Amino acid sequence: MLLSTEIKLDQIEKTYRGRTGCACGCGGEYYDLNDQNIDAEQVSKEINKHIKHINKNSERAEMYILMDNQVCIELENPSGTSVTRIYLKRN
């Protein structure tokens, strides 16, 4: 899938980076700007890395609409062992 526009930080609810499979957080890390228990500057830095990675490789990204109507953009690494997911804010 080729994204028609680049993803920007203000569109993001949270991101995930870790192993494929279960997305509960046991195999990777979630980064959420609304999480009051973590350093917002560090979270923003990590999320921006995820945005840059997906924007740079958008031709390999897949888009999903989840059961709660949230849009998730996913990019799996070429070997299939890890994934980056961006969850867009709901309108």
Fold and architecture overview:
The protein has 91 residues and is α+β, with helices and mostly antiparallel strands. Helices cover 19% and strands 33% of the residues. The protein has one helix spanning 40-56; strands spanning 12-19, 28-32, 62-65, 71-76, 82-88. Strands 2-1-5-4-3 form a 5-stranded antiparallel beta sheet, with helices on one face. A hairpin with a 5-residue loop joins strand 3 (62-65) and strand 4 (71-76). The radius of gyration is 12 Å and the shape is globular.
The rounded distance between the terminal residues' Cα atoms is 22 Å
What is the overall pLDDT average?
87
The value of Rg in angstroms is 12 Å
pLDDT < 50 runs, ≥5 residues:
none
Which sheet architecture does the biggest sheet show? 5 strands, antiparallel
The arrangement of helices and strands along the chain is EEHEEE
Query: Structural class, from helix and strand content?
Result: alpha+beta
Strand order of the largest sheet: 2-1-5-4-3
Strand content: 25-35%
Shape: globular
> Counting H and I runs of at least 4 residues, what is the number of helices?
1
> Could you give the count of β-strands?
5
Helical content band: 10-25%
Briefly, what is this?
The protein is of the alpha+beta class and 91 residues long. It is 19% helix and 33% strand. The chain contains 1 helix and 5 strands.
What's the structural blueprint in terms of helices and strands?
Blueprint: E1 12-19, E2 28-32, H1 40-56, E3 62-65, E4 71-76, E5 82-88
Antiparallel strand pairs: 1-2, 1-5, 3-4, 4-5
